[in-house]
Write a structure and sequence with these properties.
The protein has 279 residues and is of the alpha+beta class. The protein is built from 9 helices and 10 strands. Helix content is 35%, strand content 14%. Strands 4, 5, 6, 7, 8 and 10 form a 6-stranded mixed β-sheet that branches. The chain has a 4-stranded antiparallel β-sheet with strand order 2-1-3-9. Helix 6 runs antiparallel to helix 7 and helix 7 packs across helix 9. The chain starts with a helix and ends with a helix. About 10% of the residues have low confidence.
């Protein structure tokens, strides 16, 4: 048994979804049957979508705690070739603040609550208990990895793990008008101008998100452009009253990634749409 396979099984036993990494810290690519999203996306080990590929496809979404999958012949061959092990933080109810240099570490020590720390080749991973949207470059040398992302497994680290604090969640919020999670309440919050926010009603907001998911899913070409235009449309309608939640955003990102978009492309498209609208 390879060391990487042994590590993956140990992670699975701790309910941490694992996947192998190739050289360069990247996941194994899609097989020929899944290339260009021909399978419809979402591998079967995530228990969603039409894909039934037994391989190691779809990046972070392939991460699994299923020991039958991890020990399968296809995966065992990959473990022999693997250069490392990754895990899906969001799947383990974790958020990783990836600090890439000494300056970022100094900022974290001055600004963030102490928590479990894992040394990396260039910096540190700070692990918090809780899930949030992932985002790259939230500050110089700082990435946030949680939902729809993977992080390298570099050991258990040291220190007690702290609950995910608001100061970390705020790293993904760019200014007072940026879309942010709203309270999960049945009442309709007031607009800044004193009126009601119609977007909070299930029939309006949910229908808008469902239509956006469908637009992305049915894109037959120009997926990048379709994703961006769809994000732009959603934000132009729902982005100024704070009614979108992480769950809504995750639905859009999941639809985009099912069409072959990477987590990085989704984040970039969302950020560009926010910038375009001045949010």
């Amino acid at each position: 048994m390879s060391a990487h396979l042994r590590t993956a099984l140990e992670l699975a036993a701790r309910a941490v979804p694992a996947l192998p990494l190739r050289a360069g810290k990247v996941p194994f690519g899609n097989c020929s049957g899944c290339r260009d999203n021909a399978c419809g996306g979402r591998p079967n080990m995530r228990a969603a979508g039409p894909c039934r590929c037994p391989g190691i496809c779809h990046g972070w979404a392939a991460a699994t705690t299923d020991t039958g999958v991890i020990n399968s012949s296809t995966w065992v061959r990959a473990w022999r070739e693997a250069a490392g092990v990754a895990y899906h933080p969001g799947g383990a109810s974790l958020t990783v603040v990836d600090l890439d240099n000494a300056e970022a570490i100094a900022w974290a020590r001055a600004s963030l609550p102490a928590t479990r720390t894992v040394p990396t080749p260039r910096g540190e991973h700070w692990l918090y208990q809780g899930v949030m949207q992932s985002a790259n470059a939230v500050r110089p040398g700082v990435d946030v990895k949680s939902t729809m992302a993977y992080a390298r497994w570099l050991g258990h680290g040291t220190g007690a793990m702290t609950a995910l604090p608001d100061v970390v969640r705020a790293l993904v919020v760019k200014g007072p008008s940026t879309v942010r999670p709203g309270p999960q309440a049945s009442t309709v919050p007031a607009r800044a101008g004193g009126g009601e926010c119609r977007h909070r009603t299930p029939t309006y907001l949910d229908r808008g998100i469902a239509m956006a998911e469908q637009r992305i899913t049915e894109a037959s070409s120009a997926v990048h452009a379709t994703v961006y235009r769809t994000f732009l449309a959603v934000l132009s309608t729902h982005g100024r009253c704070g009614c979108l939640t992480d769950a809504h955003i995750a639905r859009l990102f999941t639809a985009a990634q099912a069409r072959g978009e990477s987590a990085r492309h989704c984040t970039d498209a969302w950020t560009n749409a926010l910038t375009r609208l001045g949010l």
